[in-house]
Input
Amino acid sequence: MRKPALLLAIFTSALLLASGLFAGMPHPFSAAYPDPARFADDIAAFAAADAQTPPPADATLCIGSSSMRMWHPTIARDLAPLAVIPRGFGGSTMYDVLHFAPRIVLPYRPRTILLYEGDNDIDFGVTPADFMAAFRAFVDLVHLELPETRIFVVSIKASGARWAKWPVMQEANGMLRAECGADSSLTFIDVATPLLGDDGLPHEEFYLPDRLHLAAGGYEVWSKAIAEVLLGGE
Output
């Protein structure tokens, strides 16, 4: 756990970031991160959905990039009997999740968080160290207000489209695994290994023609790997 003064600084900064008061100002993470403002419409849509149908209390918040967003149609069924709040937004990064956490994480007061980020971070050129800095800030922000919330961290998946960056993604996965191993409130879920064949390459049949996003068969593998850990940890 970080020092209280640092936690307070992280929380205050995140609130200012979410309010737009820091717009255009540098942040303490990688300059490779794009402006979170590109997701203004997505976040507004989540707020509108919440106003129309309040999300369940004490639920599992499922947040992350397009791999999480494209799971929305079946995620409630795949993770039953858990109550879930699907909040994937395609193209997002760890910094985007941190930035919008005061609006689409903390208000839900989730019992658990299922998080998938890193795929786009590495593709944007963010180093594993900078990705981890954003991840740690997110964890600290959540646990400052919600100390009992457990966070299940989904590993970065391999894909044919980003195969050249897989060694860097593996480095980031190793750092995520180590961080989770040192904190009982965090759990690492390996979805990369079951998507690889005996030759160490991604199973092409698990992916859409873009060779990046998961097809139905890929989500069957993904769902099984995640449900075994998430449901087992409940």
